[in-house]
Amino acid sequence: MSRKFTPKVVTANDLLDGDTIWLTEDDRWTRHMHEAELIEDEAHAQIRLIFAESQQSRIVGAYLADAKAGPNGPEPVHFRETFRTRGPSNYAHGKQVEIGNV
């Protein structure tokens, strides 16, 4: 028996600055996970991933990440994705300063 599909978001890294980005329902890339499209269908998830991978001039390393519905949009399920929402941790500027995680 196959496993139940868990909701996903499409995530990647911005090709020019390396920042974590997520794909929105209207085909934009955002730096805020809560704006990402929460995908609840496995076939649709694969189509969205193919779309993301076709944008090699904009992104690198696209993949489907487990997510859950939150009050303000998708939220991470695993530590790795939680960490990626906070941005690089090797310097004291950017997202780390904005959310007070320095």
Kindly summarize this structure in a few lines.
This protein is of the alpha+beta class. It has helices at 42-53, 79-85, 95-98, and strands spanning 8-14, 20-23, 29-30, 59-70, 73-76. It has three helices and five strands.
What does this structure look like?
- With 102 residues, the chain is an alpha+beta fold.
- The chain has one domain.
- The chain is built from 3 helices and 5 strands; from the N terminus they run βββαββαα.
- The chain has helices at residues 42-53, 79-85, 95-98, and strands spanning 8-14, 20-23, 29-30, 59-70, 73-76.
- A hairpin with a 5-residue loop joins β1 (8-14) and β2 (20-23).
- The longest helix has 12 residues, at 42-53.
- The chain is globular, with a radius of gyration of 14 Å.
- Pfam families: DUF2849.
- It comes from Actibacterium naphthalenivorans.
- This is Sulfite reductase.
